[in-house]
Amino acid sequence: MTRGLSVARRVQLLETISAQILALGDGLLHRAHSETALSLERLAAERDRTFNQFRHFADVLREGSWTNAVIDTAEPQRQPLPKPDLRRVNRPLGPVVVFGAGNFPFAYGCLRRRHRVRPGRGQPRRGQGP
Fold first, then answer.
1. 55 and 18 in contact (C-beta within 8 Å)?
2. 11, 65 contact by CB (below 8 A)
3. What are phi and psi of 75, to 5 degrees?
4. What is the CA radius of gyration of the chain?
5. Distance from C-alpha of 85 to C-alpha of 63, rounded to nearest angstrom
6. Quick one: three-class SS letters along 19-45?
7. pLDDT tens string 108-124
8. Which of 26, 64, 76, 106 could form a disulfide with 50 if both were Cys (CB 3.0 to 4.6 A apart)?
9. 11 against 120, higher pLDDT
10. CA dist., res. 31 & res. 17, Å (int)
């Protein structure tokens, strides 16, 4: 989904998601409380943690050190063989799936999960099953 997006567009996407999480206000907390029975205080802390994670990822993208760029310049006069110009940079591969405990109600890895017992957790996309 994000492979062809520029860094600026990825930053914008992460910042938009974080802003929309906050824009949901207390309705998000009350919905999560009715589905999980976690306290509103805990849910508010979880919402803030998730918001801050998205903002942090946007800041890291914008800053750029995550690419770990290395430029090893050529030495054409080196003996016994010339040294070529070598450049290395980390590039994103795409989505990564990590299976783990689901005890963070607003974790970004759970945003699109659907569950029949808790239908409020995610809505089916058009054309998908119940």
1. yes
2. no
3. -130, 85
4. 21
5. 25
6. HHHHHCHHHHHHHHHHHHCCCHHHHHH
7. 654 444 445 445 544 44
8. 106
9. 11
10. 18
Which residues, 6 or more positions from 130, have their beta carbon under 8 angstroms from its beta carbon? Answer: 116, 124
Contact indicator for 35, 55 with CB cutoff of 8 Å: no
Q: Do residues 37 and 26 lie in contact, with contact meaning Cβ atoms separated by under 8 Å?
A: no
Number of alpha helices (DSSP H) and beta strands (DSSP E) in the chain: 3, 2
Distance from C-alpha of 130 to C-alpha of 115, rounded to nearest angstrom:
10
Tell me which residue of 56, 49, 58, 60 sits closest to 107, measured CA to CA: 49
CB 11 within 8 A of CB 54: no
Is the preceding peptide bond at 80 cis, omega within 30 degrees of 0?
yes
CA geometry: angle 97, 2, 44, nearest 5 deg: 65
The pair of three-digit structure tokens given for residue 93, joined into one six-digit string? 């591969």
Q: 83 phi and psi, to 5 degrees?
A: -95, 130
**pTM, two decimal places:** 0.65
What single letter denotes the amino acid at residue 50?
Answer: T
